Amino acid sequence: MQARMQLLLLGALIRKELTVLLRDVHALGALFLMPIMFIVIMSLALKDIYDPPQFGRAYAVNVRDKGPQAGELMQRWIKMHGEPQALPADPTEALRRGDLRYVISIEPDFSEVVSAPGSPSGVQVRLIADPALEISLFRATEAELSALVGEIRAEALQDRFTGLSTKGGQAIRLLVKTERLTLGLHPTAVQQNVPAWLVFGMFFIVNAIANLLVQENDNGTLSRLLTLGVSPGIQLLSKGLPYLFVNGLQAALMLAVGVWLMPLLGGDGLSLAHIHRGSLLLLLTALSMAAVGMALALASLIRTHAQASTLGPIINVLMAALGGVMVPTSIMPQAMQTLAGYSPMNWGLEGLLAVLLRHASPGEIMQPVLCLAGFGSIMLVAAVILFKRRTRQ
Amino acid sequence: MLQISDLGYQYQHSSKPALDGISLSARRGEVLGLLGPNGAGKTTLISHLAGLLAIQRGCILIDDVPLAELRAEAPTRIAVAPQEYAFYPTLSVRENLQCFGAASRLAGKLREERIAQSLAFAQLERFADTRAERLSGGLKRRLNLAIALLPSPALVLFDEPTVGVDPQSRAFILEAVKTLAREGTAVIYTTHYMEEIEAIADHAIIMDHGKVLRDGTLTELLSEGAARLRLIVGNMAATEACALLTRFGTAHREGEYIVVTLNPGVSPTSAITAVENAGARIEQLDYGHYNLEHLFMALTQRSLRDN
Question: What is the ipTM, given to two decimal places?
Fold first, then answer.
């Protein structure tokens, strides 16, 4: 009988929390709209970082050689990168202004030098780039140009000494196959950003719960429930459980944005094909436990709306910056990567990337799952202690 | 019903006790008025009864059962109608009652019945589906009252329930409190307003600095002032007049007034005649008109609304 009453009480308080949340437009916006906006904006903004386009980058050529090898080089480059812009009067200035991303300059003796045996003398092809061109793109363009010059030279020498013309037959790229180990899938901006901002959004419940507790403390409802003999444990549980549901809804919504909305907006689509659904569910549950536990502990510590509005977001943003949400840990220095390993957001993010990109099984994500669940449990114990102390005051 | 003996409490980091040996009792069917200025210890006393503070000294018994024991078994036997609007502003009146009904361990048909009765008692039926934040100040106080009455408590504590409400709502709340007591509930009613205590209380307690200064029925308390003479004299220094009047009782100054509590058997006429014979002129005179405000000022030398 006692247990049934406690369950009824818990049910009524959970229904109250959900009704209050549904009527709080600002909280709904912060919990659902904000992470979705982050996913859309960041995925579209960072699209080229993860998948740089081959065409469409403005470039120009300055071909000062009329020989056949120079013509062949240009023809193949245009085939790969599209038509060049007209060469401006002052190419260097155009690059500085950002009108062009790079200029390829072919010296007058190019065809003669590449067709001659022995070590080539002097520079025959120059690549000059916009100062703002990402270093990775600059290196990739440089490598591509070098490989193409190598092909042209190999074909010219073969033609000269064997008489066998193999135009296009020396395509060195055909000898090399590159592949990133992601089960055939290359990570896209969406695949990186959906997990990142999903983790961030799930931890954003800290603000909602903290503000809720401050409000209930201020308006006397917290005391009223205590006066009626509602234990601190039931009160915390009635706040935590609805937010597990909120976290689940956030996850479903943001994955749906990645799968269906992003392709409609011109971004890449998130692929959930071949992922282990049990792993995803397990990881999201552990992640939600960590987020809810931390939210309850912080909310029990916070006393004013000002604290809730500043402390919550500050902790979230710092955890996100450290945990690889804002800057991928892969490009962090080693020391920062080690530090990132202590952030619960990083455990969640690495776990989600493992599930979405490497199609990890439940056993393979046990480490982040245990870290998140352990962290959540410790935070929950801290929340009970802090909440009891708060009610005694 | 309620018996408090030698209750003491001192907050951490405070040099003075908030409650210093309070003893009082409340009976079913009666309103016990608790009067005192800010800092008197009223809220600390209510917090004890509400189970929000642990007892440091003394004891509280409800029907001879220690408070802690009763609260563990039946926490809803004591209800508090707090000073704040202790409900959820974005929920409707009915949703609030449903939530607190569940918190009061009411379920099913019984809960719906109690909600209907509480709505009727507070005359809130028309506003059942209105969000609490959209109610007027008076209606909010009535919702506070309705929530407190949901579990049919044996003892209800009202903590200044009429602060900031319009005269009609105030009259309604006072009438509701009286009705509640008539129906057999024990009521403790704290307020700054003496006229409210005079209107509804059967017993009154005057508190200050954590102590009970007076405890008695209204008749007993007001009779204390029956032999009190208040006067303003001209043509004579107030200190000189005080010294002269001490022959007839205890005299002290209250602002421009000289207040004399006459000794038994002393007639006010003799005191007035003595003043006039000394060459002074009586400018104002007040005898036999006495209320709780006067008693409070006589006891504490300050107004009820002073901080």
Answer: 0.79
